[in-house]
């Protein structure tokens, strides 16, 4: 009886041990607990993959991320916390959500959101996924973010998809299009859906429809989706070529014998080619009693004899198998060759090829438009730089080599004004008239002190103005130093006006173009509608007759030189907005200014405009044809102008009067 009672007591005690263990250590990990059905689906996924989550690897973590994403409404919260490194492991080894507090962390159950408690920083080990794992998490979050109420999150999801979209994103993206109420985001989603359809949709008809739907769209994203579909490889076939064939290749027509045999060797359809050094070495090593492979040494003076001898040695196993020239020719003729698309569906690849052809045609047209805009902006710069020179050279016949330094003076004027006026827009508006006034005064002073004593003496005038140019450059260096000084454009001139991915023009160049038009209009107004303009035209055409009519040619020359110098100062402000402001700024434009005036026609504003346009388009055209060598482009342009002047020595629009006679 005692034995029976003892046995029953022991059994009861043993039966209570697991319960006691659970009571004393409720947080201890237990396999049975992980699999308990009381856990939510998300909790089960986290518990079953705890080790992988704690130490994630990009190569193996993708299934775990996918399982979490499909495990319930709290999945996005857990994934975002994981990506933000807001998951950690507490003292019991459980995975918890972390919220930073003053004393450490507040802990939350990731599956339920229930508050667990608090812990010190030293008691928590943060889970820190690397960038690769975070990228996978971001892709998984896209599905939830596409329909998030916050437009910024939807935009972020689209950005992520555009960068790293995959086939599994097509379905949620299409579903989100139906509920999108933001027109801009709807347009982005629709475009992205078509791009992903081209890349990942299993239905070829859908892919072709998506390709054709873009037409000749110039987007870089479209070209990025189409280009991989048209990549080709070459392959040899023993019979009829098969697969996604772009074209069949023929020996001698698109495929050389060497290229064909290299394909055979790469596909293990033929042995490597026998090189001449290897052939000679093999024959020399196998000379036996004056013969090699049954061929007399004396007869090895022809290629066919050497090939025959090597083939005999191959048959005997004395040399490695290799293809002689005859065998290469025979082998290449025994196969057929084709160029295959990397895209397995030929119709899809051909649709992509057609689309890229249309795009290339449109890109070529757009490049021509873009090149024309660049040439037009360059012409406006040359026109601004040359208009003042055209006035002084045309009216006075003075070759002013210091004209470039007046441009530099205007640029430095803008820089100095910006030192005192922090508002860049206001500073530029002030700089334009101030630069005109300063350079006008400098021009008048130069004319009064030097130029007027050298009229009718062009060589002395050229040398004198060249000396003044050097002196002014040194003066600029002494005042402002040799470092480039910033002439900052207003914020509203930052960036460029883009029409598409090919055609764009910076706002600064647009502003310079408008400024050139304004100065053209101002010059025409002065010359056609004012007394000064009437007197300038009279002196230009016939100074003696103008003097007899009471016009003072000496005064007109002074004002004309000052006007030309003042316009150069304004041009300097405009040029300084995009070019480096140094003491040599003007010298970079003086040659082009003289070429503009000479080619267009001395002293004629329309000739100057025509010359600037011709030189601007010519320079950009030559640079387009020879983009790697700008010095060569300058040389070709000068040669062209020299030839042009031989046929039209007075320029495009010749001036009648004193300038023409001179």
Q: What's the short version?
A:
By secondary structure, the chain is of the alpha+beta class. The chain contains 28 helices and 13 strands. α18 crosses α24.
Number of helices: 28
Q: Can you give the mean pLDDT? A: 82
User: What is the total tally of β strands?
Assistant: 13
Poorly predicted segments: 1-37, 657-662
**Rg for CA atoms:** 41 Å
Secondary structural class = alpha+beta
Describe the largest sheet: 5 strands, antiparallel
For the biggest β-sheet, the strand order reads 4-3-2-1-5
What's the domain count?
A: 4
- Rough outline: flat
- Oligomeric form: single chain
Determine the N-to-C terminus distance.
146 Å
**What proportion of the residues is helical, as a percent range?**
55-70%
Beta-sheet strand percentage? 5-15%
Could you describe the 3D structure shown?
It is a single chain. The protein is of the alpha+beta class. It folds into four domains: 2-133, no CATH class; 146-230; 276-319, no CATH class; 364-585, no CATH class. It is 62% helix and 8% strand. A five-stranded antiparallel beta sheet has the order 4-3-2-1-5. It has a four-stranded mixed beta sheet with strand order 6-11-7-8. A two-stranded antiparallel ribbon has the order 9-10. Strand 12 and strand 13 form a beta hairpin. Helix 6 packs antiparallel against helix 7 (131-145) and helix 19 (424-449) packs antiparallel against helix 24 (553-576). 35% of the residues are buried.
């Amino acid at each position: 009886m005692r034995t029976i009672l003892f046995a029953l007591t022991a059994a009861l005690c043993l039966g209570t041990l697991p319960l006691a263990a659970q009571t004393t250590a409720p947080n201890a990990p237990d396999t049975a607990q992980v699999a308990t059905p009381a856990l939510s689906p998300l909790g089960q996924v986290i518990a079953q993959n705890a080790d992988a989550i704690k130490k994630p690897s990009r190569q193996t973590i993708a299934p775990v991320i996918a399982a979490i994403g499909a495990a319930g409404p709290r999945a996005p919260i857990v994934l975002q916390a994981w990506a933000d490194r807001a998951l950690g492991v507490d003292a019991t080894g459980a995975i918890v959500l972390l919220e930073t507090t003053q004393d450490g962390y507040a802990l939350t159950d990731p599956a339920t959101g229930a508050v667990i408690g608090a812990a010190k920083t030293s008691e928590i080990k943060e889970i820190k996924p690397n960038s690769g794992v975070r990228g996978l998490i971001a892709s998984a979050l896209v599905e939830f973010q596409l329909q998030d109420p916050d437009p910024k999150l939807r935009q972020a999801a689209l950005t992520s998809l555009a960068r790293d979209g995959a086939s599994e994103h097509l379905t949620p993206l299409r579903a989100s299009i139906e509920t999108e109420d933001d027109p801009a985001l709807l347009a982005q989603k629709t475009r992205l859906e078509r791009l992903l359809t081209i890349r990942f949709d299993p239905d070829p008809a859908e892919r072709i429809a998506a390709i054709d739907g873009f037409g000749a769209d110039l987007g870089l994203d479209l070209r990025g989706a189409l280009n991989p579909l048209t990549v080709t490889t070459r392959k040899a076939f023993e019979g009829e070529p098969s697969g996604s064939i772009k074209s069949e290749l023929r020996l001698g027509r698109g495929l050389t014998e060497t290229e064909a045999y290299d394909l055979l060797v790469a596909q293990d359809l033929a042995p490597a080619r026998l090189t001449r050094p290897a052939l000679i070495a093999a024959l020399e090593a196998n000379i036996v009693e004056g013969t090699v492979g049954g061929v007399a040494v004396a007869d090895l003076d022809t290629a066919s004899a050497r090939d025959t001898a090597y083939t005999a040695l191959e048959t005997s196993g004395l040399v490695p198998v290799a293809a002689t020239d005859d065998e290469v020719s025979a082998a290449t003729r025994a196969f057929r060759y084709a160029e295959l698309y990397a895209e397995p569906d030929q119709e899809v690849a051909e649709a992509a090829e057609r689309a890229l052809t249309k795009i290339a045609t449109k890109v070529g047209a757009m490049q021509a438009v873009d090149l024309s805009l660049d040439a037009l902006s360059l012409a406006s710069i040359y026109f601004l730089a040359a208009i003042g020179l055209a006035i002084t050279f045309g009216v006075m016949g003075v070759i002013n080599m210091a004209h470039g330094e007046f441009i530099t003076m205007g640029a430095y004027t803008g820089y100095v004004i910006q030192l005192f006026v922090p508002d860049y827009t206001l500073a530029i508006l002030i700089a334009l008239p101030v630069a005109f006034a300063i350079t006008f005064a400098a021009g008048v002073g130069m004319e009064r002190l030097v130029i007027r004593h050298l009229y009718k003496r062009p060589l002395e005038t050229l040398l004198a103005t060249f000396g003044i140019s050097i002196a002014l450059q040194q003066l600029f260096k002494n005042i402002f130093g040799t470092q480039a000084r910033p002439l900052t454009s207003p914020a509203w001139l930052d960036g460029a006006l883009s029409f598409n991915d090919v055609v764009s023009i910076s706002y600064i160049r647009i502003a310079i173009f408008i400024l050139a038009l304004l100065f053209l209009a101002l010059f025409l107004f002065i010359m056609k509608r004012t007394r000064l303009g009437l007197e300038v035209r009279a002196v230009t055409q016939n100074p003696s007759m103008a003097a007899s009519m009471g016009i003072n040619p000496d005064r007109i020359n002074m004002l004309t030189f000052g006007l030309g110098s003042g316009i150069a100062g304004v041009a300097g402000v405009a040029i300084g907005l995009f070019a480096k402001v140094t003491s040599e700024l003007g010298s970079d434009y003086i040659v082009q200014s003289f070429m503009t005036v000479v080619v267009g026609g001395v002293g004629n504003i329309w000739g100057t405009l025509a010359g600037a346009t011709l030189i601007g388009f010519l320079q950009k055209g030559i640079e387009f044809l020879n983009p790697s060598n700008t010095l060569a482009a300058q040389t070709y342009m000068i040669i062209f102008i020299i030839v042009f002047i031989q046929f039209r020595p007075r320029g495009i629009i010749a001036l009648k009067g004193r300038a023409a006679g001179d």
